[in-house]
Design brief:
alpha/beta; four-stranded parallel sheet; Rossmann fold; 342 residues; six-stranded parallel sheet; 10 strands
C-alpha cells in the first residue's frame, strides 16, 4: 500500500545515521509517524523528527541501542552498565580481527548516538525479556509497549516431507551468521550426534569464516552445509524438508521471527533458554541450557528419535501460532499510533 525506496548503506553507526538523515531531509516525507525497524538508525529519525514535528516509534528487535556486545549480555547482571563497562565488553566481542580492531571506534559512535535512541516518542518491545533489558538501561517504562511479532498467513503449509526411513535427518538453522546467534554451539552439538543427520545453515554474516573453520576442525565437512543467502521462497523449501529447526541464540533475543516461520511450516524445534524463545513456544519446543553443546545434542537426538513427541509439538505449535495472527498484532500497533498522535 506504500512505496519502498532503497539507498546505499554503511558499515558504521555514524555512516548509517548520516545516510538515513540525508534521505529523510531530502525526501521530506509527508507523514505523521516515522516507524524505525533498524534500531541502529533510530538516532537519525529522532533528530529529524525533532526538527520537523514528527512522531517517532521504534520496534526494538535487538539490543543495539543499549549494548556493544550482545553475545555477552546477561539478563539482570548488565543493568546499569556504564561507559567504561561497555567499552571493555566491546573489546571482547567475538568475530574477525578486523572487526575487533574497529571496536574502539564503534564504541565511541555508540556513546555519541545512544542517548538520541532513548528520545523516541514510543517503543515497541517484542517480549517481556526485552522490556526488562531496556528498563535496566534506563528507558522510560511509560513509553515501552509490549507488542509481539506476527506471522505471515501466506506461508502456512502442510509439508509433505520425504519418508524418513533410509534418509538423513535434516536439522535447520535460518538467520544471520553472527557470534551472538550461537551457531558455534550448534555446530559443536551436531558433532556429538551419530551419523545419519545433516545440518543446513541458511544465511550470511560476519561470523561465517569462524564457523567454516570450526566445521573443518570438527571434521564435519559434507555434513554441515552453508547455503549462503536465500530468497524467502527458497527458504520455505528448506523449512518444509526439515525434521528439526534450531534457534541457539546466546543473547536474550527479543522475538525471533524465524520461530514463527518454523511454526508456520510445522517444524518442531529446539531453542536456547536465553531470551523469549522458550517462553513463547512452551510445549511447542524443547529448550536447552544457553551455550551448552552437550545439552543441545541431547535435546536434538531426543527430538529426532521420537516421532510421537514431534507430532505433539507440531499440534501445540498450531495453538501458539494462532496468538500471533496479523489481525491481532496490527490492531495493537494502530492503537499505539493513535495514542501517540492524540
Amino acid at each position: 500500500m506504500g512505496e519502498t525506496l532503497y539507498f546505499p548503506t554503511s558499515r558504521t553507526l555514524l555512516g548509517l545515521n548520516r545516510l538515513a538523515y540525508h534521505e529523510l531531509n531530502r525526501r521530506r516525507p509527508d507523514c505523521d509517524i516515522i516507524h524505525v525497524y533498524n534500531t541502529q538508525q533510530l538516532p537519525s529519525a529522532v533528530r529529524y523528527a525533532s526538527r520537523h514535528d514528527k512522531t517517532v516509534v521504534a520496534t526494538m528487535n535487538n539490543l543495539a541501542p543499549v549494548c556493544t556486545n550482545p553475545s555477552n549480555y546477561v539478563e539482570g547482571k548488565c543493568a546499569g552498565c556504564g561507559a567504561i563497562d561497555s567499552f571493555v565488553c566491546s573489546l571482547h566481542r567475538p568475530g574477525p580481527l578486523r572487526m575487533r580492531a574497529f571496536m574502539p571506534m564503534h564504541w565511541l559512535q555508540f556513546i555519541v548516538l545512544h542517548r538520541l535512541s532513548s528520545r523516541a516518542d514510543g517503543y515497541i518491545v517484542l517480549s517481556e525479556a526485552t522490556k526488562k533489558c531496556y528498563l535496566d538501561a534506563g528507558y522510560d517504562a511509560d513509553r515501552l509497549r509490549l507488542i509481539p511479532n506476527m506471522y505471515d498467513p501466506m506461508v502456512l503449509t502442510e509439508p509433505l516431507r520425504p519418508n524418513r526411513i533410509n534418509r538423513n535427518k535434516m536439522i535447520l538453522y535460518v538467520g544471520r551468521l553472527e557470534a551472538e546467534k550461537g551457531l558455534q554451539v550448534l555446530i559443536k552439538a551436531f558433532s556429538l550426534l551419530p551419523l545419519g543427520s545433516m545440518l543446513y545453515i541458511v544465511g550470511t554474516g560476519d561470523y561465517a569464516p569462524q564457523l567454516t573453520k570450526l566445521t573443518k576442525e570438527l571434521d564435519l565437512e559434507g555434513r554441515v552445509i552453508f547455503t549462503g543467502f536465500m530468497e524467502k521462497g527458497e527458504i520455505g523449501r528448506y523449512y518444509d524438508m526439515a525434521d528439526v529447526f534450531v534457534h541457539p541464540a546466546l543473547w536474550p533475543e527479543p522475538f525471533p521471527r524465524t520461530i514463527l516461520e518454523a511454526l508456520s511450516h510445522r517444524v518442531p524445534m529446539v531453542v536456547s533458554d536465553s531470551g523469549s524463545a522458550s517462553s513463547i513456544l512452551g510445549p511447542a519446543g524443547l529448550s536447552f541450557r544457553n551455550g551448552d553443546p552437550e545439552d543441545l545434542a541431547i535435546k536434538l537426538q531426543r527430538l529426532l528419535d521420537d516421532d510421537r513427541l514431534r507430532e505433539q509439538m507440531i499440534m501445540a505449535g498450531e495453538k501458539v501460532l494462532s496468538r500471533y495472527h496479523p489481525d491481532t498484532i496490527l490492531s495493537q500497533v494502530l492503537q499505539l499510533y493513535e495514542e501517540l498522535l492524540s
